[in-house]
Specification:
By secondary structure, this protein is an alpha+beta fold. Helices cover about 30% and strands about 20% of the residues.
Amino acid sequence: METILIYRAKTVTEEDVAFIRSLIADHPGDSRRKLSRRLCRAWNWVQRNGELRDMVCRSLMLELDRAGHIELPPKKFTPHNPLAVRKRPEPCEIDQTPISGRLSRLPQFEFQQVRRGPLERLFNSLVEHYHYLGYCQPVGEHLKYLVMACERPIACFSWSSPPRHIGSRDRVIGWTARQRRDNLYFLAYNSRFLILPWVSVPHLASHLLSKVVRRISSDWQQVYGHPLYFLETFVDTERFRGTCYQAANWIYLGLTTGRGKNDHTMKPNRSLKAVWGYPLTRRFREKLCQQSFPQ
């Protein structure tokens, strides 16, 4: 059977296109959204949490429509997309009294996972106004942590789905392109790490890193239904040396190419980033290079 399109690892054949045409003809009053949900159910095309892959399926159908393989019904309406024009987080009033001293003399820290919680707005605001990169809404699976001391925030962590291709990381893991595509969701990327500017405590950064890696896999399991086996992050070599990651036993993996994921020039267009990784299990290579995992 001739392949018409490969989209997000989904191979669409002539038979599949004929089925979609029949689906559209059999439900002439359906919107594009309803049609995509019908197609997901017919193909049993679901996410790992059991939800239909509705948005991906709709994009696939749109690709087929643009290529002339099918004819979708006209759009009935265009829903508001809050991601298209996202309002920047507003400043939050917060106690900025300096916190300093020896790590051993500070009160016990509390890690709070704040995604979808009442403190998420505070997290977003702190990262927006005190992290040099500002706030960027994570894409895909992600978690956000506020670190509190005596009910005062002192640090922020955000973790998200990792980039698809990082040469130095992929060589360390040793997986094939297929294994990477199937198992990338077992990795998480430390996209933001902020210690608030009025907090000055030696060794605090590496201490917090050591604490968060002990819990992140179980938190990910609770929210997304699967564990993590490997963590990674980028460190801008023009600004930082990655000392806190090194002190927390992260492993230096190499440098990025400086080109970004959508580059077509093959020339560096941004600063080089040091890639650091942290295996969450000794058998991380074995687990990540398996062809399939039991759900």
